[in-house]
Amino acid sequence: MAIRLGENQYGKAEVRLVHVSRDSARHILRDLNVTTQLRGDFDAVHTEGDNANCLATDTQKNTVYLLAREHRIGAIEDFALLLARHFVDGFDYVRGSRQEVEEYGWSRITTADGPHDHAFVRDGAEVRTTVVTRDGDREWVVSGVRDLVLLKSTGSEFRGFPKTAYTTLADTADRILATSVTARWRYAGTDADWDASYAAIRATILGTFATTHSRALQQTLYAIGRTVLEARPEVAEIRLSAPNKHHFAVDLTPFGVDNPNEVFYAADRPYGLIEAAVYRDDAPEAGRAWESVPGFV
Ligand SMILES: O=c1[nH]c(=O)c2[nH]c(=O)[nH]c2[nH]1
């Protein structure tokens, strides 16, 4: 019987890093959560307990803080690429690397005197994400957003679906559409203007959600994917996952009161879960870009 070690990777998960740029009195804050992973010549660590090539996860954690100190932290994509290149180019037993970075947004507090230099308020629940994968000389960048909570109070219907023996849901021509978008998009290259691209894609997601008259969340999701690909040539493909956060109009007729779509019960569970990938025909192949990126079709 032959038993062998399969795919493996290791690193430090969720290194919390807050960086304050103090180049002027107007501080710039970046709040990150970094997960480093190394792939390479690590068989002996697993099979023999030989740690000669085992770059300690503690060292990887320190690397995150030292590269943050030595280099200006710009876009999370640049920081993830910096980390991947540091590990793969710096140690011959490291052949590949996966760097995942999440960014929590902070906005300057505005006082009566205007935007404050060094006081901030956390943005909404949404989190900006990136996963940089390096394999030998090849690199891929998959960025995204998660927990982007959206709601429209009209402009959404759901009707014409099969009415089976088990169907109770009625057709509706006017409902609340609410979701929490998680999107990941793969860039065609590794040198986009990351911050500008993120801002534009986020704005496109919001704009398309708002202006698409929705006949189903599936239709809205595809419209979001299509408009992002149409507007952003640097994006090769986008994958979307969106819970349908149901809002049910409360039946007030037992009280002799009507409810013209004003009073809703916001259900927690269960929720519909709608997922779709949207591709560009001429996109470069995905390679290992989506490896270890869970939760999508
Ligand atoms: O937008 C929707 N898509 C569905 O597939 C679905 N199914 C359901 O019960 N409600 C909805 N809404």
From TrEMBL:
Keyword Oxidoreductase listed: yes
GO biological process, one term: urate catabolic process
Pathway named in the protein's UniProt entry: Purine metabolism; urate degradation; (S)-allantoin from urate: step 1/3
PROSITE patterns membership: URICASE (PS00366)
Catalytic residues (positions): 12, 57, 246
InterPro entries attached to this UniProt entry: Uricase, Uricase_CS
Residues reported to bind 5-hydroxyisourate: 57, 158, 175, 218, 244
Molecular function per GO: urate oxidase activity
Residues bound to O2: 57, 244
Highest taxon of source: Bacteria
EC code(s) of this entry: 1.7.3.3
Catalytic activity reported: urate + O2 + H2O = 5-hydroxyisourate + H2O2
Keywords: Oxidoreductase, Purine metabolism
Residues that bind urate: 57-58, 158, 175, 218, 244
Role noted for this protein: Catalyzes the oxidation of uric acid to 5-hydroxyisourate, which is further processed to form (S)-allantoin.
Family to which the UniProt record says this protein belongs: Belongs to the uricase family.
Name assigned to this protein: Uricase
Species: Marinitenerispora sediminis
Encoding gene (name): pucL
